[in-house]
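Q: Hand in one record:
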Amino acid sequence: MAIRMAFVVAAAHAALKSQVVRINALNVYPVPDGDTGTNMLLTLESILKESKDKSYESAEAASKAGARAALMGARGNSGVILSQMIRGACEVLAKRATLSAETFADALEGARERAYASMRHPVEGTMLTVIKDAAHAAREAVKDRNMDLPAVVKAAAMAAHASVKRTPELLGVLREAGVVDAGGLGVAIILDGIYACLTGQKIEVDEEEESGTPDLDAIHAEEEAWGYCTEFLVTGFAGDPREFEDYIHASGKSVLVISDDDVVKVHLHTRDPGGALTYAGTFGRLTGVKVDDMEAQVHARGDEGVDTERPPAAIGVVVASRGVGNRKLFESMGAVVIEGGQGANPSAADFAEAVESTGAEAVILLPNNKNIVPTAAQVSELVEAKTYVVPTTTIASGLAAMIGFDGDGEAEAVAEEMEEILGTLQAAEVTRAVRDVRIGDHDVLEGSYIGLLDGELHAVGESVEEVALKLARDIIDEGADVITLLAGEDLEESDLQSITTSIAGLDEDLTVEAKTGGQPLYPLQMVAE
């Protein structure tokens, strides 16, 4: 069964990969950077990596290895919950000699039990509901003795897809946004892949889907509306597990605490990721993203205009950024830049390599993206240098925070100064909607421009300039004196000049600065001081 199960996982992975862009598009906010499908895909990929070129002495050993690999490789809420479904299924499969129709139904029930048990407050209308409905359908199908394994799997898959369609009826945020649950759709597609494997069907991966697959490490948009997404593993766990779990749950929202022997996986959204990590570190050793989990490439330093011969500063600074212009701006201010941001998050290993390249004993990290903040928080476990994370969430706010960087200063004081600057800023972004949606009082049409102010949908319009002006008016009302504009790769120079002039005309006392950053996906970022 171990060999057959490897084929089943590979088929599930292929099916999910064929639809990952579609799943990622199901953000509540219609921005082009969703990641639910990618997180689930990476969870399955971790099992494939674990089982490659390996043989196991028993089904129990293979199942245990697969469940552990899924937990270790899980990213984001969807990935962690999927890992628990896999664990529950593996606990059943470990005790069975063959994969029969009844075994499959029992495995789905095990997946359901583990998934619900992992949540203190299970929410219906999510992937939990979908696995529950699929398990129920499989159990009912087994009662019909004329139905073989493929027929039972098909019944479960059909029930899962029907359940996905009902998710907006159960979850108001989905209903308001006009989307189904992304994680639930991922579960249904995984079942499609298992059915294809058992019936000998070939799963085709569309070239557009393949090329559009982002490499992200973050959480679904509606899960990011509060605090920082924080994930880590505690290995060699020792202490009171109930005390630990209670503290983590009290530290934030969207909490998952999953135990496997002496390893505990934690996912939470919190205002204070450093506090959660410090506390967890008293129970064991903290580890995070595996070195080989991500393929983001660290770009070599030495671009035109950068003095690579200068001696290392007393402290270093490493930033994540995208766009040629942004790279040059950061490097001119003394930063080491790694490629990463919307659509391509860097790994903790990428940060670690960049930290070591500074040669400094203390290094400040600017994630410049809310999805990268939890990754940056894990870097301290991979390097000898003391690291400080200043939780910047946009490239524009990162550039503003760099004003406080002093390479010859005392690291902790410099980090505090940069955080103080960050606390005075308002960050706004303009991008294009990838689908029709209604959010609050805003009707958004696919292709229209939308403006996010401090992460919240704030404006909708037919052009970048229209949306930028709406955002600027609100920012000015809050008392801003300086607004810096950062042009993306899709914004023409003439449009940037027009926007700059229009915003400057809103208030004679306002200073407006414009820079060419070249970031993708977001034609304009703004930061106000």
Observations:
- The chain has four domains: 2-218, 226-287, 315-423, 426-528.
- The chain has 20 helices and 16 strands.
- The two ends are 62 Å apart (CA to CA).
- The chain has a mean pLDDT of 82.
